[in-house]
Design brief:
248 residues; alpha+beta; Arc Repressor Mutant, subunit A; Alpha-Beta Plaits; 3 domains; four-stranded antiparallel β-sheet; 9 helices; globular
C-alpha cells in the first residue's frame, strides 16, 4: 500500500488545479442517487453507502441544494442508472478497471471502447483482470491535532490495516468487510472524513518507461473525463522518475 498515498497526493494536487467542478459534482450526485435507490432509502443512518456519498459530497464542498436534488432523484426514481464495469490494458501491460454509472449501456460501451482504441489500449472481457485488484475501504481524514500513534491504536479494533501520512492528511485502509465498522468508529471519535470509498487497490504495481507511462495517464484522463465514468483504477507504479517528468 506504500504507493497508494503518493499517487493520491499527486492526483489531488492535479485535480485541484484542473478538474472541472461540474464533473466532480456529477459523479457524486449519481452516487447519491443510486445509493438511495439501491442502498436502502434516503436516511444516511440506515444506508451506509449513502452516508459515504454525502460525506464525499461535503468533502468536495458540494452545495446543499445539489445534494438534496440528487437525494430527490433517488427517492422518486426519475433516474435509471445501472452500474457497469470494464477491464482492459494500456501501454506496457498496465491494467485498468473502470467503474461506470450509466442510463444508456450501449452509449457507454461504445465510448469506452473508442477511448481505448484511440489511446492504444485493449479492452478485455469482464473478469479477465479483476483478480489483479482487491477491494479496500479507503478513508481520507485531516490530521488536525491527532496523535497519530494513539489514533492508530484506537482504530485497530475497527479493522484498520494501514495508516499513511501525506502532508496534512491521513489515509486509512480497511478490508472490504470492515468498511462500515470504520465509518462508525470515526463517527464515535467525531472525526469527519474528507472522503470514504471502496477502491480497487492493485496487488502489485507495474513499472513502465516514461513515454509509455505518459500515454497510460492520458488514457486514464480521457476515461475520467467521460460523464458515465465514476472511477478508474490501475496498477501503474508512480515512480519518482515519472513524478519528476510530469512536473517538468
Amino acid at each position: 500500500m506504500s504507493g497508494h498515498s503518493k499517487w493520491s497526493t499527486i492526483k489531488r494536487k492535479k485535480g485541484a488545479a484542473d478538474a472541472k467542478r461540474s464533473k466532480i459534482f456529477s459523479r457524486i450526485s449519481k452516487e447519491i442517487t443510486i445509493s438511495v435507490k439501491e442502498g436502502g432509502g434516503s436516511d444516511p443512518e440506515m444506508n451506509p453507502r449513502l452516508r459515504s456519498a454525502i460525506q464525499n459530497a461535503k468533502g468536495a464542498n458540494m452545495p446543499k441544494d445539489v445534494i438534496q436534488r440528487a437525494l430527490s432523484k433517488g427517492e422518486v426514481g426519475t433516474e435509471n442508472y445501472a452500474e457497469v464495469t470494464f477491464e482492459g490494458t494500456a501501454q506496457g501491460g498496465v491494467a485498468l478497471y473502470i467503474e461506470c454509472l450509466t442510463d444508456n449501456n450501449l452509449r457507454t460501451v461504445s465510448t469506452i471502447r473508442s477511448i481505448f482504441n484511440k489511446r492504444g489500449g485493449t479492452l478485455g472481457k469482464n473478469g479477465s483482470l479483476h483478480f489483479l485488484f482487491e477491494r479496500k475501504g479507503i478513508f481520507t481524514v485531516p490530521i488536525g491535532s491527532h496523535n497519530i500513534e494513539e489514533l492508530e491504536l484506537e482504530l485497530i479494533d475497527a479493522g484498520l490495516e494501514d495508516i499513511e501520512e501525506t502532508e496534512d492528511r491521513l489515509i486509512l485502509t480497511t478490508a472490504l468487510e470492515d468498511f462500515g465498522k470504520m465509518q462508525k468508529k470515526l463517527e464515535e471519535l467525531k472525526i469527519e472524513a474528507e472522503s470514504s470509498e471502496l477502491q480497487r487497490i492493485p496487488n502489485s504495481r507495474k513499472v513502465v518507461d516514461i513515454d509509455s507511462a505518459k500515454k497510460v495517464l492520458k488514457l486514464i484522463e480521457m476515461l475520467e473525463e467521460d460523464d458515465d465514468v465514476q472511477n478508474v483504477f490501475h496498477d501503474l507504479e508512480m515512480t519518482e522518475e515519472l513524478e519528476k517528468a510530469l512536473n517538468e
